Structures are given as structure tokens and as C-alpha cells.
Amino acid sequence: MIELRPVEAADLDKFFTHQLDPSANHMAGFAAKNPSDRGVFDHHWQDILNNPKITVRTILADGEVVGSILAYKDEETPEISYWVDKARWGQGITTEAVGQFLAEVTERPLRARAVVDNVSSIRILERWGFQRVGEAQGFANARGAVVKELILELR
Question: Band of the pLDDT at 21, cuts 50, 70, 90?
């Protein structure tokens, strides 16, 4: 059973552990320069939790904290982002969590980004109706290189 709930302080320990996996960082691409720096991680999450323009939820699978999902608004169009523990990939958790989150966050259009080789994430977004609207390039710390990412939008 997949559930979303507000983030609790204890969730941050799990989130930190999830983002330490090098292959998960590689797939996300745009991760922290040094994922093992807990101070930077905590500062980043305090910024998220204290920003009224960000809606963030903890993802639970059978009562266990397995990830997070959020929508933020840097510019005109809000964007969705998520992170699920690599050990739980391929179980339908992210797909279900995105669907539940989209029912809660109803502002449209809503955008998402994914590195072009993150096929699973792109497939999840397209399943929920996101369509490719553009591409961008940026330096991905986790890859130490400039990567291409797809910009997807849900109207």
C-alpha cells in the first residue's frame, strides 16, 4: 500500500540514506556535489520545508519511508520532482506516488525534468499524461558532465 503524508523530521534520515547510492545519483543526474555531506543535505531540506511555495510529501510503502515527492515553483510553471529508494525501484511505488501527488497538486500546467537516459522516470511521467515539450542541458554533479534532460509538461 502506497501512501503520501507530510514530511516528519525522522524522515530526513531515510532520505539522506536513499540519496547516498551512487547509481541512484547517476540516474538522477542533478544531485548534490557531495551526497555524503549531511550539513549540506540538512540545509537543503530545511530550505524545502520552510518554503511555502513547495508542496512536499513523504512516500510510504507498507508503512516504510521509501522516498519523497515535491512540487516547487521557481518560475512561472511549477515542477514536480521525486526520489525513491533504489532498493524499491521497479515495484510500481513511484508510479502510484506520482498519481496520488497529482491528485493533490492540481495546478496546471505542471512540469518535470528527467535526464534523457532515465527511461523509467520518463515512462512514469508519460503514463500520467506528461508530454515532452523541450530539452535542456546542464552540468550534472553526479555524472561530472553536461547532460541533456527532457522537459515534460502536464496540462
Answer: very high
Domains of the chain with bracketed CATH: 2-154 (3.40.630.30)
Beta strands of the chain (E only): which ranges?
2-6, 55-61, 64-72, 79-84, 110-115, 131-140, 145-154
Kindly state the DSSP code that residue 108 receives in the 8-state scheme: S
* 28 burial via Cβ count (<10 Å: 0-12, 13-18, 19+): buried
Task: Provide the β-strand partners of residue 65.
Answer: 60
CA distance 79 to 145: 23
Please state the pTM of the whole predicted model. 0.95
Whole-angstrom distance between the N-terminal and C-terminal Cα of the chain? 28
Place of cell 546542464: 138
List beta partners, residue 114: 150
Q: Based on the number of CB atoms within 10 Å of its own CB, is 95 exposed (0-12), middle (13-18) or buried (19 or more)?
A: middle
Q: 64: how many CB neighbours lie within 10 A of its CB?
A: 10
Contact 113, 145 (CB under 8 A): no
* Residue 40 pLDDT > 80: yes
